[in-house]
Design goal:
Strand content: 35-45%
Distance between the termini: 52 Å
Largest sheet: 12 strands, antiparallel
Number of domains: 1
Helix content: 10-25%
Shape: globular
Strand order of the largest sheet: 5-4-1-12-11-2-3-6-7-8-9-10
Number of strands: 12
Number of helices: 5
Order of helices and strands: HHEEEEEEEEEEHEEHH
Structural class: alpha+beta
Oligomer: single chain
């Protein structure tokens, strides 16, 4: 019975209709990582999830209209968002960070969200990882750091996104970010990122 189920699964993965399966796994793996070099500013930060982080300063993580080198989730290449960051504080006491106008903050353990489309910030003690990532370049449980002293370096790893990658082999999409489930204007949509990068 187990052998038969294994053969059915293997056959399903090889069918032409499942060609997007491996593409989705690759994109999920990319979502787990942030790494970019080049930038200007004076900024340093370290994070062990959103709930435990510290940072101070501001910077432009790229030269010439956001041009940098690296990978921010599914964005890979030279032109990577965000193009401006500012950060200050120590979480969970009080910390705030803005990335191209999208703000994530925490005060005494309570998380705030602000985006351009929102009339006012929202606050919660239990933020949704999916909502946290919306139009934002970091994950709720991401670990990493950045240092900009004239030129800069930024890196991070998101264990929840990596779990999404692993579970994806069983066709589970806990982050609801497989391209087939996303509208074209969603910030994690592949087509949307290609438009962001420009020609």
């Amino acid at each position: 019975m187990r052998a038969g189920a294994g053969l059915v699964l293997a056959a399903g993965l090889l069918l032409p209709g499942c060609a997007g399966y491996w593409e989705h796994r690759g994109l999920d793996l990319m979502d787990s990582w942030r790494f970019r070099v080049l930038g200007v500013g004076f900024h340093a930060s370290v994070r062990a999830t959103h709930f435990l982080q510290a940072g101070l300063g501001m910077g432009i993580p790229g030269l010439m209209e956001g041009n940098g080198i690296g990978m921010v989730g599914r964005q890979v290449g030279l032109r990577l968002n965000p193009t401006f960051i500012a950060e200050a504080g120590l979480a969970p006491l009080a910390h705030v960070r803005t990335a191209d106008g999208t703000v994530r903050g925490i005060v005494l353990g309570r998380t705030s969200f602000y985006e351009h489309a929102m009339p006012e910030p929202s606050w919660t003690f239990a933020p949704s990882p999916i909502a946290y990532r919306r139009v934002y370049d970091r994950g709720l449980f991401e670990v990493g750091g950045s240092l900009y002293w004239i030129l800069g370096l930024d890196f991070g790893f998101d264990p929840l996104e990596f779990a999404d990658f692993i579970l994806g082999f069983a066709t589970l999409d806990i982050m609801s970010d497989d391209p087939s489930r996303l509208p074209e204007d969603h910030p994690q949509s592949r087509d949307h990122h290609e438009q962001d990068r420009g020609p």
